[in-house]
Amino acid sequence: MPYFDAASAAPLHPVARQALLASLDEGWADPARLYREGRRARMLLDASREAAAEAVGCRPDELVFTPSGTRAVHNGVAGALAGRRRAGRHLIVSAVEHSSVLHSAEVFASGGGTVTEVPVLRSGAVTVESYAGALRSDTALACLQSANHEVGTEQPVGEVAEACREAGVPLFVDAAQSLGWGPVEGPWSLLAASAHKWGGPSGVGLLVVRKGVRFAPQGPLDERESGRAAGFENIPAIVAAVASLRAVRAEAAAEAERLRELTGRIRAGVARSVPDVEVVGDAERRLPGIVTFSCLYVDGETLLHELDREGFSVSSGSSCTSSTLTPSHVLKAMGVLSEGNVRVSLPTGTAGADVERFLAVLPRAVAGVREKLGAPTPGPTAVTGADELVVDSLGKLCPVPVIELAKVIGQVPVGGTVRVLSDDEAARLDIPAWCQMRGQEYVGEEPADRGSAYLVRRLL
Amino acid sequence: MPYFDAASAAPLHPVARQALLASLDEGWADPARLYREGRRARMLLDASREAAAEAVGCRPDELVFTPSGTRAVHNGVAGALAGRRRAGRHLIVSAVEHSSVLHSAEVFASGGGTVTEVPVLRSGAVTVESYAGALRSDTALACLQSANHEVGTEQPVGEVAEACREAGVPLFVDAAQSLGWGPVEGPWSLLAASAHKWGGPSGVGLLVVRKGVRFAPQGPLDERESGRAAGFENIPAIVAAVASLRAVRAEAAAEAERLRELTGRIRAGVARSVPDVEVVGDAERRLPGIVTFSCLYVDGETLLHELDREGFSVSSGSSCTSSTLTPSHVLKAMGVLSEGNVRVSLPTGTAGADVERFLAVLPRAVAGVREKLGAPTPGPTAVTGADELVVDSLGKLCPVPVIELAKVIGQVPVGGTVRVLSDDEAARLDIPAWCQMRGQEYVGEEPADRGSAYLVRRLL
Fold this sequence. Notes:
2 copies of one chain form a homodimer. Helix content of chain A is 38%, strand content 16%. By secondary structure, the first copy, chain A, is α/β, with parallel strands linked by helices. Chain A has 3 domains: 14-247, Aspartate Aminotransferase, domain 2, CATH 3.40.640; 250-373, Aspartate Aminotransferase, domain 1 (Alpha-Beta Complex); 388-457, Translation Initiation Factor IF3 (2-Layer Sandwich), CATH 3.30.110. The longest helix of chain A is centred in the middle third of the chain and has 39 residues, at 235-273.
């Protein structure tokens, strides 16, 4: 039963399991106590901190353990912004950061701060120029992920860190997706990561604050972990997290090559065997294990369900699989299709045979969903006369507005237009993306009584 | 090697260990995902929530899991205060709350809120009258622990909850020390607890917010755990935490009786066999496993070290064992002696023979420390004439100022005074406590060039 959602949570690494079991009896006591159980716990904690710091490439006293990657981000961003309050109240984030970063930015903005969101290319990457261009004299902090969690695109973190250093602005790097593969390059100032992304247990994050970076922990005082992560330390989990980080690092070079070949196979195979598909993310500068694609005329939730029935656990950034009804902000920022979106993220050790079986199953699964939804089939459509057609898709969710558009586009003559009325948030992304994939012209969006009107001109 | 510091962290319960192992393979995936690994994780999380809610006596949708008890307190207090902002900006806490509550109150005060600290009796308990008297029309929240973590005294939570209900003020109960023994009585509104206090693993806290209580989570948005506890859920640890809660509850009545007898034996034995000792905390209304006492003329750190060498792991609220150089705020609020303070907190399953051995070892250990410190020995002292003596203890730490006072008190005639100069924070607590234990009169404290002058009149 292949699990292909390692970017959400990786299965527990065997080394993590062993380390957890071994330290359950040694690491449960309070490391602040002076008696032997406390000293033992303290030794485990200190040794873990040293090993983690070595893997990150920092000093042990720069690194604290937090209860999650999310907490590392929340505490890190808030502490850095407060520590640099006198420098200014301006924060830079990329448009494709993890939600924990973006939600931290929202809190900052609601408290009177200014936030610049640096846009990304269609590949999902920022350019160094646009990022550097956002730096201001009152910039307190800049945030950039090492690699994207939804599409795998690597960011130019090293060069952005250099630009930030020149500007005297600390760079906070969310390294959640990449730390298992290697240290983050460049003169970054703060870093966050999450153990369950590299096969460690849940409940452990890392926050690194380089010496010399002004940092003022927020929230109630707590003496643990240098005051940067409140609450009793979860030492057995920390030991397990660090043991698995070392284990995956030892295998990283070989495994990266192997997974990169497998995801390359998926990129090529999907494009070849699934019609009307867009493989998204940078083809070269990407994480080894992640590949993401979107399928026209497909409801993401139904496709995930079909793949689950076939034994494949994957994830999706389509709005129809989430409770929020808005498509992934990452796909939106990239300007790519969101409907029928599938993220495949291979855990280390994934067998090639499982990938082959996935490639064999996928076209049938996509076709099945399209058939159920009545997706348009290729072939000529009779032009019915009118130069402009209106499609009322109000109240209908992704991918129905796009399906209805595709069904009628052939009915207007070349040069004619179709106006799609839709109140589904995904249409704003998916109708332009459909036009780009199909060589039609996306004219624009106009306000309507309900929702919006999306105007499309037939070019072929 | 008896571990007698269960109030800091209890050793992992065998049931917790089993449950943790069993759920490592089932509970690592993201419970928000729709595929089978996610559904399995979700089922474990839901089942744990139901079982925890049953043990607490609340609805499952009123209970969330947090990464620690500290986090449950921080999130709970901040959310309740923000939710009731329109009711007012007044917070009530008892003077002996856990530091996580008091530090939350500090954050509230620094943001412009007003905090009333309700004093306690010498037993460590608030009175219902004084607590109810602190309620105001603008009180947003009231906090009271179910039982004290340092001295074991139970608070009149049920009656205080009734008073709060009558006043329309929600009561937040820190139940960290008591939840393993039974549910908290009375119409409380919010509750926090910590799994590693009842033999669960580290990394799990509980936060309960009753339906109808206004609550506005603070910090960056995060959809997990009803938005009340950010970060990826640690499901194996949650499963283990709840399994051990059920297990300790099943044994609670019998074990409470057994431990109460053992701590009763310690209370009596210490008072009988150690001279110049004060057993503190309520003798009746107390947790089964905790007993606390303070020894005159003893340095807490040295005593802990001696007991550790004898194989006993205990804790202390003396300033000399902490990095802060201020004695425990609990002992201070109670007005009891802090020097030579020892907290014995027995884990469930503690053998009677270990308690007996502790009682055999303790008098010798205390005597040894006193001898090293040159503590005064009983017996007559020649009056040297002067009506007032000055003892300069500046720069000397607890218990030296008290030892020096005790050595010279016999040198002034009855009715004469000794003036102790000290800049040690503990002297403010320990000199009056010594007077009370020795039947001498504590006249008061006066400012001095450095530190303070403490004036004592010889009565006998």
